[in-house]
Design brief:
The protein is an all-alpha fold and about 170 residues long. The chain contains 9 helices and no strands. It is rod-shaped and about 105 Å long.
Amino acid sequence: MLVDKALALRELHDQHAAAIWRYAVYLTGNASNADDVVQETLLRAWRTPRILEQDPATTRGWLYTVARNLVIDDVRSARHRHESPVGEPPERAIEDRTDELFDSLLVGEALMTLSADHRAVVVRAYYGGQNTAELAAELGIAEGTVKSRLHYGLRALRLALQEKGVVR
């Protein structure tokens, strides 16, 4: 039985493989893909006993239909839809930081309007990440003075930014 099946498949291959391959090349535009289509078509013939039992001369239409369906299934597959070969990898998108640059320029200009004492406390607190105790120790002033300068410095900074139309 197995020898008969293998003999029937060989006869089917000998009579139809070249024609199916040409048809698959026509459909896919690629010889290596056509080889895969022919192989899968004959494998499906092997798995379908009624096809191997028929006269090999009468099965060409079935083989063409199977080959066409395999090509269609491949084109519809996620692999085919989501992969597209390119010559070079795409460029990485660079984040636009223009707004950040303008914001930093505006804040820098507003900071320049503060007194040196207020500016020193605000810059060290917000850009340096220091707390009031650390600022008092570094600047050699009382912690209450640091809090006062921070309060009035931020208030003056807000007014300067309001004048520039940044803050309401």
